[in-house]
Design brief:
The protein has eleven helices and 13 strands. By secondary structure, it is α/β, with parallel strands linked by helices. The chain has two domains: 229 residues, Rossmann fold, CATH 3.40.50; 61 residues, Alpha-Beta Plaits (2-Layer Sandwich). Strands 5, 6, 7, 8, 9, 10, 11, 12 and 13 form a nine-stranded mixed β-sheet that branches. It has a four-stranded antiparallel β-sheet with strand order 2-3-1-4, covered by helices on one side.
Length: 299
């Protein structure tokens, strides 16, 4: 296992021995394939039928009817099926399905997805609102925006307007009812320990760079969120410097409050303690990636 020493030290400073052990074990787990049903094009009972016809065993979660866990099938097995080719399902980690559900997007709302590519959460928001919201999906990278466009079309998310822009540069003239900021991060919750180049790309420098953009993005999000409305801040990191510390810093400077996160089935999640009680941090295991989520209201 080639986990950088500085990360292990960071984890030991944050969490008890028990949790550090869970996290390190989680990095070594082979994660099961998961997907969600795209309700814009299909329905749960049809997908269950197709899986059963193909002898693909699956499990469900309490917190979403649309989420499926496959017992032993690989991504390749799913990609061969018409339901995948037609965009009736979307391969997505369970953890990354949580932020849109927690955002609880409303039909008719103006919604901003600030770091949208490759489009899993964008198209999930479209499905949760039955294509009846107005979603602006931002992405600044040329290659990633092509992937976003492809997925939006394939998933039939017709309520999505794609904007090629760095979200930090969005004009303050804009304002939104709901915002999802799934911020660029170090990825400390999703490390692949089999990657021989891990120590090259997962560095302290990457964390420092992530912190700077997370802070600027959250400040911008608060500015363009309408008063009294809500947003979700999430990362696939389990380091407090990218999560609670960013939020605490912005809370001192802006009029915002944390909304407690609760939903049916939350008790199924492998949860880490957080410094801001009402936020949610999930540690990696065979089902979940490490992930942090906070729900914020602008006062």
């Amino acid at each position: 296992m080639s986990i950088p020493n500085f990360l292990i030290e960071n984890l030991k400073n944050q969490y008890s021995e028990k949790y550090v052990e869970e996290i390190l074990n989680g990095y070594n787990e082979k994660r099961k394939v998961t997907f969600r049903v795209n309700t814009l094009k299909s329905n749960v009972s049809k997908i269950e039928k197709v899986l059963e016809e193909n002898n693909i065993k699956y499990k469900k979660v309490k917190w979403s009817k649309e989420a499926f866990i496959l017992d032993d099938a690989k991504e390749d097995d799913i990609e061969k099926l018409d339901i995948y080719k037609n965009g009736e399902i979307y391969l997505q980690s369970l953890s990354s399905m949580l932020p849109p559900i927690i955002l609880n997007p409303r039909e008719g709302a103006d919604i901003l997805d600030m770091a949208a590519a490759p489009g899993g959460k964008t198209t999930q928001i479209a499905a949760l609102t039955n294509n009846k919201s107005h979603i602006t999906a931002c992405e600044m990278n040329n290659i990633r925006i092509e992937k976003l466009k492809y997925n939006v079309v394939k998933q039939g998310a017709s309520c999505v307007y794609i904007m090629q822009k760095d979200s930090r540069q969005i004009d303050d003239f804009f304002s939104f009812d709901q915002i999802l900021l799934d911020a660029p991060c170090s990825g400390s919750g999703t490390l692949n320990v089999d990657d021989k180049n891990l120590e090259k790309y997962f560095t302290e420098k990457l964390i420092e760079k992530s912190i700077k953009s997370q802070y600027t993005l959250l400040k911008k999000a608060v500015k363009i969120l309408k008063k009294g409305q809500e947003m979700v801040y999430s990362t696939c990191s389990i380091l407090r410097i990218e999560n609670e510390e960013i939020i605490s810093k912005v809370m001192k400077e802006e009029k915002i409050e944390i909304i407690p996160i609760f939903f049916e089935g939350i008790e199924e999640l492998p949860i880490l303690p957080t410094n801001i009680k009402e936020t949610l941090c999930v540690y990696p295991n065979e089902l979940y990636e490490g992930f942090f989520i906070a729900k914020i209201r602008k006062l």
